[in-house]
Amino acid sequence: MTDVAFVVNRLNEAHAIVDRLDRLSVPVVAVIHGYCLGGGLELALACDYRIAVEDARLGFPEVMLGAASRVSAARYVCRGSSVRSKR
Asked: Which residue among 24, 69, 72, 80 has the highest number of C-beta atoms inside a 10 angstrom radius?
């Protein structure tokens, strides 16, 4: 297997995990503490609920390198997420 094929295979496996999480029939909660970036944020967005503590930092830094995040990540962001603060 070439290096490119290996990377593509691993990315497909990671995406399959996120898709399986998204399809679970029970509510899934992600608790975010500290940095939640790239694939970690994509995983959190696939959950039904996200709780972020005050120091949480969310983002897709790969876009700064010209690499777009997976298309489905936008789906998770747009499907009705809400942000509330204690303050």
From this structure: 69
Active site includes 42?
yes
- 13 is annotated as an active-site residue: no
Task: Kindly name the residue from 14, 22, 62, 77 that is annotated as catalytic.
Answer: 62
Instruction: Please give the domain boundaries of the chain with CATH numbers for all domains.
Output: 3-78 (3.90.226.10)
15/70 Cα distance (integer angstroms): 9
| pTM listed for this prediction | 0.69
**Residue of 39, 41, 42, 46 marked catalytic:** 42
70, 46 Cβ separation under 8 angstroms:
no
